[in-house]
Amino acid sequence: MLHSALVAYLYNGLTSALKEGRTELDFSKDRAKCRIFAPERAAGVIFERMAEIIAVGYKYRFLDECVRVCMPKKERGLLLSSLIAADLEADRAYILPRLVSEKEYCLDALFLFRMGELREKWGRIAAYIPETFSARDLRNFSNFLVHESRRTVYLKGAAVFGEDFSPLRLSRLTGEESVEREIMLADAGYIKCVGKISDTTGDFLQKYYPERVAFS
């Protein structure tokens, strides 16, 4: 089941976010389903999670198929994450009005039949990335995005938190949850580290967030 992880993300996100109602996860009959039992006023929360799935999960897979660069897996994941972060708010603004209230949703159908202009935009973005794009280019591109951002994220161990101290888990939608991808997806401009961090994370911060990290 190719998109079972995306449906599981929806289930987990709604389980923690819905103040009323409940959710059920079903992987039977070779199809992942998330059943939601909630009042109509909860639609906004549901749509927010669905928009994240399309704007991050579907976009990551789309770009992964289209971007033709020869880079190690880790750097490639960071590149795709930074491309997603650069347009995340604009993509959400496009997606949300197209999520009208229905009794049943198919994520694939939503993506294929209501997000045509969005896919075209993503295709143009992918075409801009030359096959010769290098690790040095990635660092320059990331540094540009970092200096454009005023957002602060908090890092404690292997957990990343937003400015309101809520846990950030968008990297789950990329197929590989990691501190590095999470920070990239958050469009972070500043990192505040609480306690110790691993050597790997330290190297990442030194490379992509120079002079943007504080420790406490």
Summarize the structure.
By secondary structure, the chain is an alpha/beta fold.
How many distinct helices? 8
* Total domain units: 2
Order of helices and strands: HEEHHHHHEEHEHE
The quaternary organization reads as single chain
The residue-averaged pLDDT reads 91
Helix content: 40-55%
Q: Could you tell me the number of beta strands?
A: 6
Category by helix and strand content:
alpha/beta
- State the separation between the terminal residues, measured CA to CA: 43 Å
Q: What is the CA-atom radius of gyration, in angstroms?
A: 18 Å
| Shape call | globular
| Uncertain runs | none
Give the neighbour order of strands across the main sheet: 4-3-5-6
The major β-sheet equals: 4 strands, mixed
What fraction of residues sit in β-strands? 5-15%
Question: How would you explain this protein's 3D organization?
Answer:
- The structure is a single chain.
- This protein has two domains: 4-134, no CATH class; 147-215, no CATH class.
- The protein has helices spanning 4-17, 43-66, 73-95, 107-114, 116-128, 135-148, 179-185, 199-208, and strands at residues 22-26, 33-37, 152-156, 159-161, 190-193, 213-215.
- The longest helix has 24 residues, at 43-66.
- It is of the alpha/beta class.
- The strands form two sheets. The chain has a four-stranded mixed sheet with strand order 4-3-5-6, covered by helices on one side. Strands 1-2 form a two-stranded antiparallel ribbon.
- The protein has eight helices and six strands, in the order αββαααααββαβαβ.
- Helix 2 crosses helix 3 and helix 3 packs parallel to helix 6.
